[in-house]
Amino acid sequence: MSDDLLVARDVEVAFGAGKSLFGAVKASVKVLQGVSIRIGRAETVGIVGESGSGKTTLGRALLRLVDVTSGEIHFDGQDITRLPETAMRPIRRRMQLIFQDPMASLNPRHTIRSIVLEPMIFHGVASNQADAEARARAIFDRFSLPAACLDRYPHELSGGQRQRVGIARVALLAPDFVLADEIVSGLDVSTQAQALNLLKELSRDLGLSMAFISHDLSVIRAVCDRVYVLRAGRIVEEGPCEEVFASPKDEYTRALLDAIPLPRIDPDWLARTTGAGSAGDMDGAK
Amino acid sequence: MSAPILAISNLSAMSDRDRTPILRDVSLEVERGETRGLVGESGAGKSTIAKAILGILPRTVRVTGGQVRFEGADLLAMPAGPLRRLIGERIALIPQDPMTALNPGRRIEAQLTDGPRLWRGLDARAARTLSLKLLDEVHIRDPERVLRSFPHELSGGMRQRVLIAAAFALEPRLIVADEPTTALDVTVQKQILRLIRNMQSAHGTAVIFVTHNLGVVAQICDNVTLLFGGRVIEAGRTADLLEAPGHPYTRALLEACPRYDRPNAGLRPIPESVIANLRAELARARAPR
Amino acid sequence: MKAASPHGIGETLRACARDPKVIAGGGFVLFLLILALAAPWIAPKDPLEQDLILGATPPLGFAGAQPGNWLGTDDLGRDVLSRAIYGSRIALTVAFVASSLAATLGATLGLLAGWYRGWVDVVISRLVEIWMAFPPVLLSILLVAVVGAGVGSVIGAIVIIDWTRFCRVVRAETMGQARSDYVTAARAIGFPQMRILIREIFPNVLPVLIALISLEMGIAVIVEAILSFVGLSVSSDVPTWGGMIAQGRQILHQGWWVLSTPLLALFLTVLAFNLLGEGLRRALDPVMRR
Fold first, then answer.
1. Tell me, what's the pLDDT at A277?
2. A64 FRET partner, CA 20 to 30 A, in A136, A285, B181, B257?
3. Nearest to B267 among A196, A215, A256 (CB)
4. Residue among A21, A105, A156 whose CB faces C181 most closely
């Protein structure tokens, strides 16, 4: 489908495979199996799963930050599955990543200026230092970040400011695709709403395609057009948000939805079970 | 109506380091067998209140006024020895992170039996019987194996069950549950919430449930106290707060929650005006030092 | 804005300057450095000048002391204080040069092994393991005995033995850094590997490296002292602390001061380097470590 920006076909990611020094074959762990995903232009797609579902690995695989053991990934019509790093470089500008913990994703020994300007200069988005600085200030202004932040170090900023710097760094490269990896988990409801709004605005203005990874279906409902439900490395359900939320076909999706407590009085909620819960919790196994 | 099991009146505290107020004139009551939610965003003061109840306030926090009465006795005025005994026997904690709340170097049996052996003087055999019974109550199959295990051999949900069992071991009158499901997957969360509710009705324990998740509060708390900036903004029956919130902050908070049954929920941050008004309220209500 | 923890260069230097261990250790090292550099002007007498008539005279304050020989003389009449001051030159030269070279070699290999992994890591790690199996002091004695005496050989011996220490630590640090989100962010931006290694990872490895270099300097001083004790270091007319100890050992009962002075000097120097290293490690380590 030529309308799709990013397509993954039958992707499999396995870790730990290979031979040890003396020839013994080591068993591999399949983190993703037979995963096929498509993300259209200017579309926001949700990837939801609990811990161990493989959603973070899927995100990394889409960005070629993790090697794919089999399957294909196509970006804007081009097969990037095994593209060498030098050829990937210009493509990387067009596919970016926003992290969950901005404290961990900003190098503590770099100033904000350096963190935000260097990528622009590296990719030629800005023609020189002055141009880069001007662009940075413009976007900081738009994100309500004081220009003084540029001279500071990450630990001197508040959590919310760091989050916005992480988004600004990415936005300044004017990518076509952004992967948001659990970026609102652990945030207060209000800060979460601000971040989601910012992201939605940005995606509209830049015509971004987005993959939004989260374990929280309520958040996915707020920002995504379509959703993929991941369980133990496989996709168990997919579709437009209204459909999936209104009438989930898969048992696991139903269990996920049912498990979410909504802020409304629902006397049967606690007692209600739909069957397929998180595997292995009741019987004492890991 | 019998006296409340916990009565916090006009509790105020401030940080010793920078003299900022942490709690402003907080009052709340918990009846026997009640589940009360303590809700607020980060920095609202809910963990400070929880720590005050448990007697583990950090040294940098100074109480500047008010009382924390548990079964009539003011915990803040008690000497250390009797306080430790009172809290050890009658108040328990379900901690937030099951991954780090258990000692990785000790088997589960040792950790489960700590409380009973210390405060009830049980010997090893009696303590073991008690732990098996507790593990059974929290629906752990194969409790023998779990007792022998080390924490890292169990899943997060299992560990939380063990912690819940430990909390109920001494039949406490009050349990402080400090965001006990935040670190868990949502399907596991539901099972744990159900477990806490069931155990609580079975043992007649009162629970103070600290959380920032209004959905959780809606489903398991009878009453709720909402905090902001160390001050009680609104308190009352959960149903009342959700269906007819009195304070603009409460209303704004509810509207900011994402909900899978409402496509546009979760995109309305709390308006600056509401926050500004709140801060003005707080400044006006500042107690004289 | 939170209280500053050392991350920026200015803050870092300030944090170092405030740490008591850094002040104590660094202060002494600085003092020693001045002594060593200004030895010809500071030392009261010529360290090589013998006066057999004087023989072994004790330090000032003891019976039989000679004015002008504050710490006494050895059995050849040479001034102990001056010899100790000159001895610091050898000690510090070996300390600074040997540690820097060992650090450079070890850190480079450690960075490469920790970042590229794969066969590069396998080769370097096996090399380190095999190398570390040799008893260090014995090996350095052997090397110097074969290659011949002199400051260069001593430095060479220390570098050849101790680079492995740096390699292992830097490799571990690098591997830890490589897993961090900001390195993933740099990869996602598309920066080439070398740039990530130098610009993202190395600045975070540097603090540990600096602390280790300081500790290594203490070790180097001891190794040099051992080598000069057995006479395998510089030629015997150049004063070294180890040489003085060897000498002093022989006339211990007649002239204990010939032994005690270099021993004290060695002790204080190594202590200073250790304190400096510990203080730097604390001051340079980011407070927020995952």
1. 46
2. A136
3. A196
4. A105
